[in-house]
Q: What sequence folds into this?
């Protein structure tokens, strides 16, 4: 009876409930994305292989199937301008239900940014899961623990950042660049490679004073690169020359456009150190922000301050010029515009091998979005020369230019203040949008993204207008007219790139307008001291 009673007591028990994890193991595996991030900071580096192994093991045990891997190698976690957004997009599209990370600090290093992007995943029913931190985010305690993990990651990132800032400040106080390593045109003294790790350096016991001295071979090459660029050579011609000399980057590679201007823009050859503008409060790295300032360095300059200022001016002038116009085949490249749609006219060839025969409107050629205009290149160049001759002969032109400059400067200064206030207003609105999204659990993330995209577009437009206003305020029209005679005398002697550089301080644009079928186009040469037409 005891056995029967025992049997009956067991039979009356309720069946055991399987845990969700066990249930998932016996059903179809949940599709998930594996996300790997390797930090730029050596102190917190976790190799991709370690992360992948841990994520794969934990996901398999939980009944998840990693369908794809998204990697951000050597990338910061302080923003979400990285490939992690691809994983979020896949969850939002339904291709996966979860994103697995090795640890929550791999997801992000800022509390607000991390939570905002977790909210995007959870809004569509997904989850961000840590392979090494088993927090149950379905509970209040689990969410609290996860949020604390994000806060701790931000604190650790801030500490690392403060340590780096202190190290960089110490080096700048000694008039050294924030990071060591070789610099093109210079030889680094006082440091030697470590025997145990050739990537790192230690103090040279025979010469402990760290400094940079001019390299007798590459120093003159660096100086000539500045001179050639200021004289009017474009990037392509400059690259052909510098690589033809046998010069190589500090890492031993041939120069490309990006590497060349990274060296020149640094100002190291002018005896300066390039730093993030102290007045900028964007919170980004200089490489992402681009707003730079220069302070005196301890290295001997290979160029003088006057040449450096000329270099900066030309860089700013050519920043909005397409690369094909920076190495022009024709002297008016980039200056000739359609009088109707304001597009830059493109070169049109004629039969019989006559290249560069005419200019034509690209909008008419591509999609008939403009009535179009076609004009012989010879006619345009003759019109420009004739107009320049008038400027040279007009003794009142200088007075008119100077009077126009006074009005331009006043308007430019007014515009500068207005645009700066507009940029500050947009920045505040962007920050407010991020805070609202973090607290809003009902509005789709796409709505916030669309609003932010619009604000970012407005900010970019305001930045462009601000640069133009500053350039107008700095323009010195008094020096334009003396260059006229040089252009007239050199038109048939100098290459197109040099002529284009001589025309830049004189001609704002050449507007070519269609007048009617089979009628000659109207050509108007706009000098820089006149107000520009509608762009």
A:
């Amino acid at each position: 009876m005891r056995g029967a009673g025992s049997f009956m007591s067991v039979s009356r028990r309720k069946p055991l409930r399987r845990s969700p994890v066990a249930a998932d193991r016996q059903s179809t595996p949940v599709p998930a994305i594996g996300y790997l991030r390797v930090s730029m900071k050596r102190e917190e580096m976790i190799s991709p292989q370690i992360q992948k192994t841990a994520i794969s093991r934990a996901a398999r045990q939980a009944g998840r199937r990693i369908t794809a891997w998204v990697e951000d190698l050597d990338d910061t976690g302080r923003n979400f301008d990285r490939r992690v957004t691809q994983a979020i997009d896949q969850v939002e599209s339904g291709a996966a239900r979860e994103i697995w990370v090795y640890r929550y600090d791999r997801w992000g290093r800022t509390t607000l940014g991390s939570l905002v992007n977790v909210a995007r995943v959870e809004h569509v029913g997904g989850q961000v899961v840590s392979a090494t931190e088993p927090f149950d985010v379905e509970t209040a305690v689990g969410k609290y623990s996860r949020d604390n993990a994000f806060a701790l990651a931000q604190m650790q990132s801030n500490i690392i950042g403060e340590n780096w800032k202190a190290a960089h400040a110490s080096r700048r106080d000694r008039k050294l660049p924030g990071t060591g390593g070789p610099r093109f045109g210079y030889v680094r003294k006082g440091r030697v490679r470590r025997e145990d790790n050739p990537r790192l350096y230690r103090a040279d016991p025979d010469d402990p004073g760290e400094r940079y001295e001019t390299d007798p071979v590459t120093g003159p090459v660096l100086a000539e690169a500045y001179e050639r660029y200021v004289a009017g050579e474009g990037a392509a011609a400059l690259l052909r020359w510098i690589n033809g000399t046998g010069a190589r980057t500090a890492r031993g590679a041939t120069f490309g456009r990006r590497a060349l201007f990274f060296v020149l823009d640094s100002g190291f050859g002018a005896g300066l150190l390039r730093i993030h503008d102290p007045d900028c409060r964007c919170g980004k790295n200089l490489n992402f922000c681009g707003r730079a300032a220069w302070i005196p360095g301890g290295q001997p300059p290979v160029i003088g301050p006057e040449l450096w200022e000329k270099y900066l001016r030309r860089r700013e002038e050519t920043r909005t010029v397409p690369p094909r116009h920076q190495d022009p085949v024709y002297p008016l490249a980039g200056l000739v515009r359609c009088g109707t749609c304001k597009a830059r006219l493109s070169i049109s060839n004629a039969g019989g091998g006559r290249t560069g025969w005419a200019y034509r409107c690209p909008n008419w050629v591509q999609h008939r979005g403009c009535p179009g205009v076609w004009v012989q290149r010879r006619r345009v160049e003759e019109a420009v020369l004739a107009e320049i001759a008038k400027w040279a002969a007009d003794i009142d032109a200088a007075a008119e230019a100077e009077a126009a400059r006074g009005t331009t400067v006043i308007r430019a200064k007014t515009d500068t203040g207005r645009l700066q206030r507009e940029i500050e207003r947009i920045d505040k609105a962007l920050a407010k949008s991020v805070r609202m999204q973090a607290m809003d659990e009902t509005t789709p993330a796409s709505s916030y993204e669309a609003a932010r995209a619009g604000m970012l577009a407005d900010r970019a437009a305001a930045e462009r207008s601000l640069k133009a206003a500053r350039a107008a305020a700095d323009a010195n029209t008094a020096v334009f007219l003396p260059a006229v005679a040089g252009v007239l005398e050199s038109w048939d002697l100098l290459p197109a790139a040099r002529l284009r550089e001589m025309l830049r301080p004189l001609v704002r644009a050449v507007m070519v307008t269609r007048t009617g079928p089979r009628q000659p186009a109207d050509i108007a040469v706009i000098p820089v001291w006149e107000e520009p037409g509608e762009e």
Remarks:
- Confidence is low (pLDDT under 50) at residues 1-26.
- The domain at 216-319 is CATH 3.90.1750.20 (Hect, E3 ligase catalytic domain fold).
- The CA atoms of residues 175 and 297 lie 5 Å apart.
- The chain has 19 helices and 16 strands.
